[in-house]
Amino acid sequence: MSITNSVIVPAYHEKLNIKPLTTRLFAALGNEGSKTTELIFVDDNSQDGSVEEVESLKKQGYNVRIIVRTDERGLSSAVLKGFREAEGEYLICMDADLQHPPESVPKLLDSLRNHAFVIGTRYAPGVGIDKDWPLYRRVISSTARMMARPLTSASDPMSGFFGLQKSYLDRADPRSINSQGFKIALELLAKLPLPANANAALGEVPFSFGVRTEGESKLSGKVIVQYLQQLKELYCFKYGANNLVLFLLFWSILVLYCVYQIYSLLF
Ligand SMILES: Nc1nc2c(ncn2[C@@H]2O[C@H](COP(=O)(O)OP(=O)(O)O[C@H]3O[C@H](CO)[C@@H](O)[C@H](O)[C@@H]3O)[C@@H](O)[C@H]2O)c(=O)[nH]1
Ligand SMILES: [Mg+2]
After folding, report:
1. DSSP letter string over 72-128?
2. From the CA of 242, how far away is ligand 1's center (Å)?
3. Is the CB of 219 under 6 A from ligand 1?
4. How far is the CA of 217 from the centre of ligand 2 (A)?
5. Which of 49, 53, 213, 241 is the S-S candidate for 18 at Cβ 3.0 to 4.6 Å?
6. How does 73-87 read in b/e, with b if 16+ C-beta sit within 10 Å?
7. H helices of the chain, where?
8. How many separate domains does the chain show?
9. Catalysed reaction(s) (predicted)?
């Protein structure tokens, strides 16, 4: 049977999460789904035993492999590398740390049959974010989400749990895609030539966002700065570089909003 689905997982120092993610994913896909799905970890030379872990799972019969990059680092570029190497027409991206439940992957794959792009959203009735996710991360995430509002109609463009039909990626000029930072879903939502019909373009699959139990988050100040640079570029892409007044106005509102959020949290 040929591979139709590729699940891409950017991974850096995630050895302890590789086995549970792989076994839970293929269990969720079932016998039939497992035959048509490959799992690809894209690791940036962690040298923590991730390679050996994947090799061992491969020997057990799982269709899993690991790409080790030694010349580049970063979440978004790792995802793009995995997408390029993928065999399947239906691509899924998810984190290694189990904050994205592998059991939701079949739902994303189903939705991808009818939509060019599918986002796993934490903002829908009946789902949410684990209560143990730190407050400062909630503030960063909701502020970042608000800043992306003018760029996409997706309810959760900050999500790293998403899928797309490869043909849409193939139609885009690779040089036009910003591969810096963490927010590759937003980048692709804004830049890919998705169908004009909103229903055909975007599907949303609610999921509950868990907390990491093994390893550490790689979010850093540098990633936040990269996000701000990415936003600036996306605003110029969408609204034109000359639209400076609009841009400055938006940023002023944003700064006021952030101050208000921090103030209401503290007092
Ligand atoms: N290859 C590679 N993978 C990386 C790198 N940095 C991070 N990753 C991998 O990318 C995934 C997400 O990284 P985390 O460090 O767990 O990110 P987070 O702070 O929990 O952020 C998550 O939440 C955001 C939503 O609030 C998501 O946008 C983001 O994608 C991620 O899911 C993990 O599998 C991690 O190993 C890197 O430089 N290289
Ligand atoms: Mg995480």
Report:
1. ---HHHHHHHHHHH---SEEEE--SSSSS-GGGHHHHHHHHTT-SEEEEES-STT--
2. 33
3. yes
4. 5
5. 53
6. ebbbbbbbbbbeebe
7. 15-35, 50-59, 75-85, 105-112, 135-147, 166-170, 184-191, 198-201, 221-239, 244-266
8. 1
9. a di-trans,poly-cis-dolichyl phosphate + GDP-alpha-D-mannose = a di-trans,poly-cis-dolichyl beta-D-mannosyl phosphate + GDP
Q: What is the pLDDT of residues 82-125, one digit of tens each?
A: 999 999 999 999 999 999 999 999 999 999 999 999 999 999 99
Query: Which atom of ligand 1 is closest in space to residue 137's alpha carbon?
Result: 26
Question: Residue 93 forms beta bridges with which residues?
Answer: 8, 162
Which residue has its alpha carbon closest to ligand 1 atom 32? 160
Using CA atoms, how far apart are residues 99 and 135, in angstroms rounded to an integer?
16
The CB of 96 under 6 Å from ligand 1? The reply is yes
Instruction: Give 128 Cα–ligand 1 centroid separation in angstroms.
Output: 19
Ligand nearest to the CA of 159: 1
Chain centre to alpha carbon of residue 144: 14
> Is the CB of 218 within 6 Å of ligand 1?
yes
Question: Is the distance from CB of 111 to CB of 203 less than 8 angstroms?
Answer: yes
Alpha carbon distance 108, 7 (integer Å): 11
Asked casually if ipTM beats, i.e. exceeds, 0.85, the reply is yes
